[in-house]
Amino acid sequence: MPSLGADMESGTLVEWLIRPGERVERGQVVAVVETQKGAIDVEIWEAGSVERLVAEEGQKVPVGEVLAVILAEGEKAEGESAPADRPTPEAPRAPSPRAPGLSPPPARATPEVASSGARLRISPAARKRAAELGLDPTGVSGSGAGGSITLDDIERAAKVAEPGRAAPSPQAAPTTDARGAMRQAIAAAMARSKREIPHYYLGHTLCVEPALAWLEAHNAERPVAERLIFPVLQLRAVALALEAVPELNGWYRDGAFQPAEGVHPGVAIALRGGGLVAPALHDADRLAPDAMMAALRDLLARARQDRLRSSELTAAGLTVTNLGDLGVESVQGVIYPPQVALVGFGRITERPWVRNGQVVAARCLHASLAADHRVTDGALGARFLRQLTDHLQEPERLWPT
Amino acid sequence: MADLSRDTLRETVIDAILAVAPEADVDALPPGRPWREALEVDSFDFLNILVDLEKRLGVSVPESDYHELVTLEGLLDYLESRLAA
Question: Taking every annotated instance into account, which residue ranges of this chain make up the domain Carrier (chain B) (predicted)?
Fold first, then answer.
């Protein structure tokens, strides 16, 4: 069970999208897991074949517990004991071949090893009860001696199986319970942020007339459905600033800064009726304008339909929040732990602006940075913010040809 | 489409808004105030509403006219004049 947020302790496996014996590709969605942040599509990070599914649909699984065993290319199926002492935290991580120097095992693993070879350790009472409940005990994790399944384990599995079966459909409005759970998750993360992270705040008001002119020119001949929205420019400017100042792209873990791999800024998305998610926009530094708009559109749509992917909840090292559409002038952000910074944008509003010694009316925007002082200092934050605002003020630099 | 009554046009616009923001209480909007902020419609939602209105009415709003759509009345006036043209 992958950790899909700083304060996630467990998740409920709603649905397996793979079967034993099936081949899986890197990045493939293999399961749906219900968390406090809603239903998440869990992706796998190694190609291989599914040896067996350990967790059962409906089961609540603590973070770090094995969900499934995936064998890498050419790897031999092992007995039941091996996977247990090798946790696969992100189901994804396949065990590496044990003896790389040896010739690969026969292509066809003997089916006995995978299925009947693994005798289930379960007490007679538990087996009887499982049969009564119509519950397949193979997916239940045992808490008894030697990992054997006890009657209590079966009862517990039966209990969590019920709500799991009634998993919300993708389109269903979140229930009051889901709302409450999300509120609690936000409360825990934000309390931790304010308790642990010494924030410093920087802000800058900039004139966005050139950026808006760029956007209007880009959109002028396009049908509405193919237009860009201003947040695409903002996210692009953030991505380029992160490239220039990578010290603000990562996580503070175990007393040290750990840089993020790639530029995947989180996008704070308010959910209608309350709540907030901040999935990562992957490779924001590499996307052309239309591709970035398509990626953002997809992300926003899936966030609102409760269909985010696991990698989107863990990849961001910095989050961007835009409260301008709600009329807010400036944002003093709260960092999403363990990330190290948050960028906040306010509304675009017309103001008196001095240009060439003349006061003119210009559309302006306030950009802010909240950053973790354990990791960076104000001078570095200022460099980041300057990079960000320079790019927004000179839009031709956003996607240089 | 040109003979669409103001009330029908209003219904159409409200339908398009509700498709994006189902909980929006459009009737409670203070007249003459920006509707997007009041209904928490962000730039992405706004784009989707315009796509929807284009489908329903055949009116494509260029970005340079967005400033005329700030109030609900302004939006209706704008659509009315475009439909009459």
Answer: 7-83
Question: Is residue A32 a contact partner of residue A51, using CB atoms and an 8 Å limit?
Answer: no
Q: B13 in a domain, yes or no?
A: yes
Would you call B19 an interface residue with chain A, using a CB distance cutoff of 8 Å? no
Please state, in angstroms and rounded to a whole number, the distance separating the CA atoms of residues B6 and B19: 20
* Disruptive mutation site among A214, A299, A325 for chain B (greatest number of B CBs within 10 Å): A325
A231 in reach of chain B (CB within 8 A): yes
Q: How far is CA A19 from CA A52, A187, B56, in A?
A: 8, 37, 44
* Interface contact flag, A297 B61, Cβ < 8 Å: no
Cis peptide before A338 (omega within 30 of 0): yes
User: Is A319 within 8 Å of A343 (Cβ atoms)?
Assistant: yes
For residue A177, count other CB atoms closer than 10 A to its CB: 10
Q: Measure A325 CA to nearest chain B CA, in Å.
A: 5
* Summary count for chain B: helices (H), strands (E): 4, 0
Interface test with A, best of B20, B33, B35, B44 (most A CBs within 10 A): B44
User: What are the φ and ψ backbone dihedral angles of A398, each rounded to 5 degrees?
Assistant: -65, -45
What confidence tens digit (pLDDT) does each residue in A145-182 have? 666 777 777 777 776 655 444 444 444 445 667 778 88
Closest C-alpha to A235, from A189, A273, A267, A206: A267
Phi, psi at residue A347, to the nearest 5°? -85, 155
Q: Which structural domain range is residue B54 located in? A: 6-84
Which among A223, A322, A326 is the nearest to B37, CB-wise?
Answer: A326
With 0.80 as the threshold, say if the pTM is over it. no
pLDDT 10s digits, A82-91 = 444 444 444 4
Q: Are A325 and B60 inside 8 Å of each other by CB? A: no
- For chain A, how many residues are written? 401
Torsion from C-alpha of A184, A186, A191, A196, nearest 10 degrees: 130
pLDDT of the residue at A182: 85
How many other C-beta atoms lie within 10 A of the C-beta of residue B66? 15
- Return the CATH number at B75: 1.10.1200.10
Q: How far is it, in rounded angstroms, from Cα A349 to Cα A346?
A: 9
On whether the CB atoms of residues A313 and A279 are closer than 8 A, the answer is yes
Q: What is the DSSP string of A37-65?
A: TEEEEEE-SS-EEEEEE-S-TT-EEETTS
Chain A with chain B: Cβ pairs closer than 8 A: 49
Topology of A10-165 in CATH?
A: OB fold (Dihydrolipoamide Acetyltransferase, E2P) (2.40.50)
CATH fold of A177-397 reads Chloramphenicol Acetyltransferase (3.30.559)
